[in-house]
TrEMBL record:
<feature type="domain" description="AMMECR1">
    <location>
        <begin position="1"/>
        <end position="184"/>
    </location>
</feature>
<dbReference type="InterPro" id="IPR036071">
    <property type="entry name" value="AMMECR1_dom_sf"/>
</dbReference>
<dbReference type="Pfam" id="PF01871">
    <property type="entry name" value="AMMECR1"/>
</dbReference>
<dbReference type="InterPro" id="IPR027485">
    <property type="entry name" value="AMMECR1_N"/>
</dbReference>
<protein>
    <recommendedName>
        <fullName>AMMECR1 domain-containing protein</fullName>
    </recommendedName>
</protein>
<dbReference type="InterPro" id="IPR027623">
    <property type="entry name" value="AmmeMemoSam_A"/>
</dbReference>
<dbReference type="InterPro" id="IPR002733">
    <property type="entry name" value="AMMECR1_domain"/>
</dbReference>
Length: 184
């Protein structure tokens, strides 16, 4: 990833995401051209109503250019997150968007729960993977789950693993994010 995008570019990202969602109800003109259009970024788009999450979708190991993946992620966040019904136009008007671009992932010991907890750096995102099953928490989740054990247990639960024992062959990575959000 190149140096951080300018404030203007970050604003274009948010405008692009919002326009992509709004186009579901009212087609708009062409989306803004992004300076980072050709970059393949691992990212998540989240939509919030007040302090509550209303949708979040993202992609790791993204092969698509940002000009294509950002609008697609925004639409998926609004209409395809299985935890929520499709977004309404009124909710979009009240909600605020957040874009999280994952920065370099660093491997983290995960041969045991104890090894992971010892290496875990609070305030960083965490990816857990066993075989083809993979899940993650963005760094922002630390605002709600402030204890390391609770953070790991919740992530295990999200991924469908039991919190009793430790899955064989578990791998982990920690990461930071560039977070761009609308005022809220």
């Amino acid at each position: 990833m190149q140096p951080s995008p300018s404030t203007e570019e970050q604003s274009r990202w948010l405008t692009t995401a919002r326009q992509a969602i709004a186009a579901h109800w009212q087609p708009t003109g062409p989306l803004l051209k992004l300076d980072w259009a050709s970059h393949c970024l691992d990212a998540f788009v989240s939509l919030h109503l007040g302090s509550e999450l209303r949708g979040c979708m993202g992609r790791l190991d993204n092969p698509q250019p940002w000009q294509v993946s950002l609008p697609a992620l925004a639409q998926a966040c609004a209409f395809e997150d299985p935890r929520f019904p499709p977004l309404t136009e009124a909710e979009l008007a009240r909600g605020w968007l957040e874009i999280s671009v994952l920065l370099a992932k660093q491997p983290c010991p995960a041969h045991s729960r104890e090894a992971l907890l010892q290496a875990l750096e609070p305030q960083r995102g965490l990816i857990l993977q066993q075989g083809q099953r993979r899940t993650l928490f963005l760094p922002q989740v630390w605002h709600k789950l402030t204890e390391q054990e609770a953070f790991v247990d919740a992530l295990l639960g999200k991924g469908g693993w039991s919190t009793a024992g430790w899955p064989a062959g578990m791998k982990a990575w920690q990461f930071d994010c560039l977070v761009v959000s609308e005022p809220h």
